[in-house]
Here is the input.
Amino acid sequence: MNEKGMNVLAKGIIAGLSETKRSVYQYIESREDELASQCETKEQFLTMLVKVSPYHEAAGRFNISAEEIYRLMKETEAEINKKLEQKLNTYKWIDCTERISNGSENNKKHFLFLA
Here is the structure.
């Protein structure tokens, strides 16, 4: 499955998380994305993660210890990965682009999703 398909499935899984898990996960992910957009190299990003520490920011924001935030994130990531793997084993994407497209739609893909 391509990255866009994986993102669609992951978004559905994240939406189904408990309020606390979803809020913490989305907060940390968005902060990490913000930091990544400010960096040109992996090394810069890793340095910024240590300097800024989205986990410590989340701890303050959600009034939970940093250790609990870390544990909650690991638990949430494991839950997302498990559910994503289950969906990937259950669902099937069929690329119908050649059958549907008349050639005039550049870079447009057509998929059939079977559950």
Summary: The radius of gyration is 18 Å.
